[in-house]
Amino acid sequence: MKTLLALLALTLTGCGTIETVFRSDAAASQTLKNENSYCGAVPRIYSGVSYDLCRVFAPYQENRPDKTGDTATRGMLIDIAASGVLDTLLLPYTIYQQQTDGSMIIAD
């Protein structure tokens, strides 16, 4: 039970929705840039899921311990699921944000 709570806490602190909706665009963009993500932009609607997928499909890097092993894969799946739920709850806000600000451009 403690392991599950610890995993949940770690997942929510790195949750894609938290990263894209509640932090600045520059911070989320910089994270994806540092991971050499192939994504050029992240839409605001379901941004957490998109952000997580950008991280999952970023090129493998030796110094990224979260990209190795079964535990990391399960953690990312939980993160994507949590982001999907939170993104759905935040749809009215993110639709408005998409209309006014457009997609989040990843810094070059």
Weakly predicted, low-confidence segments: none
Strand neighbour order, sheet with most strands:
1-2
Instruction: State the major sheet.
Output: 2 strands, antiparallel
Question: What is the SS-derived class?
Answer: mainly alpha
Overall tally of structural domains: 1
Strand content: under 5%
Rg, rounded, reads: 14 Å
N-C termini distance: 42 Å
Write the element-wise H/E pattern from the N-terminal end onward. Answer: HHHEHHHE
Q: How many E strands?
A: 2
Number of helices: 6
Mean pLDDT: 81
The helix content is 55-70%
Shape: globular
Protein described:
- By secondary structure, this protein is mainly alpha-helical.
- The protein has one domain (2-105).
- It has six helices and two strands, in the order αααβαααβ.
- It has helices spanning 2-13, 16-21, 25-34, 47-56, 69-89, 91-101; strands at 41-42, 104-105.
- The protein has a two-stranded antiparallel ribbon.
- The mean pLDDT is 81.
